[in-house]
């Protein structure tokens, strides 16, 4: 299934500057695997060494935070928009 993935500025070095890329997969896990295959290294910036979403990275499928859905097993329907949003600290 084809989806769009919004890439935050800090990760655009992996996508040649593209702010949005096409992805494929029926679940978020599949989409991220394909994303890392297409843009090597980006997966390690989203997932930790155990394969879980990094603590300071938020991922949304549509309007839904996947941490409150099925995590990496969240279904990604055809045409879905996935947003990768790193946490921003400030003070």
From TrEMBL:
Pfam families the record matches: ThiS
The record's listing under InterPro entries reads:
Beta-grasp_dom_sf, Mopterin_synth/thiamin_S_b, Sulfur_Carrier/Prot_Modifier, ThiS/MoaD-like
Provide the protein name. MoaD/ThiS family protein
- Taxonomic source organism: Sphaerisporangium aureirubrum
